[in-house]
Automatic annotation (TrEMBL):
Organism superkingdom: Bacteria
Matching NCBIfam families: metmalonyl_epim
Sequence ranges assigned to domain VOC in this UniProt record: 5-140
Protein name: Methylmalonyl-CoA epimerase
Taxonomic lineage of the native organism: Bacteria, Pseudomonadati, Pseudomonadota, Alphaproteobacteria, Sphingomonadales
Gene Ontology BP annotations: L-methylmalonyl-CoA metabolic process
Gene name of the encoded protein: mce
GO terms assigned for molecular function: metal ion binding; methylmalonyl-CoA epimerase activity
Pfam family, one: Glyoxalase_4
Cross-referenced InterPro entries: Glyas_Bleomycin-R_OHBP_Dase, MeMalonyl-CoA_epimerase, MMCE/EMCE_epimerase, VOC_core
Entry EC no(s): 5.1.99.1
UniProt similarity note: Belongs to the methylmalonyl-CoA epimerase family.
UniProt keyword Iron-sulfur present: no
Species: Tsuneonella litorea
Keywords: Isomerase, Metal-binding
Length: 145
């Protein structure tokens, strides 16, 4: 298994609308996707695009808001009411090979492989096995890079 590109940093927020305003007004972001619901994950999502140094797409900031009190993200915001960094996401060419790699190392995978916000398979690794950081592993979208 080889570490792929850092695709995005997930940022939990109590209000995507307020966070979008912040990224536009304070950070000067000009490319932000429309928010959409991911009910199977209990969140609303949108992406802030950042430019790469060579003019290509850079790393995205994924803004995530809970869809309700039963969302696991609601628990995160209960402990961090202002929001904050939730996870990092790395791309891999083959999600099943990556899953087998991490399982072979004894890393705890949180739930089954499922389809994530980019429409590709993902899984999460337990923070206690990843230096304290919730880590998302995502199959590189077809046609990307």
């Amino acid at each position: 298994m080889k570490l792929g590109r850092l695709n995005h940093i997930g940022v939990a927020t109590p209000s995507i609308a307020d966070s979008v305003a912040y990224y536009r007004e304070v950070m000067g972001a000009t490319s932000i996707t429309e928010a959409f619901d991911l009910p199977e994950q209990g969140v609303k999502v949108c992406f802030v695009d950042t430019p790469g140094h060579d003019g290509t797409a850079g790393t995205q900031v994924e803004l995530i808001e809970p869809l309700g009190p039963d969302s696991t993200l609601a628990g995160f915001l209960a402990k961090n009411p202002l929001g904050g960094q939730h996870h990092v996401c790395f791309e891999v060419p083959d999600i099943e090979a990556a899953r087998a790699h991490f399982e072979g190392l004894g890393k705890r995978i949180l739930g089954p492989t499922r389809i994530g916000a980019h429409g590709t398979p993902i899984f999460f690794l337990h923070p206690r096995d990843m230096m304290g950081q919730l880590t998302e592993i995502m199959e590189t979208p077809k046609g990307a890079h």
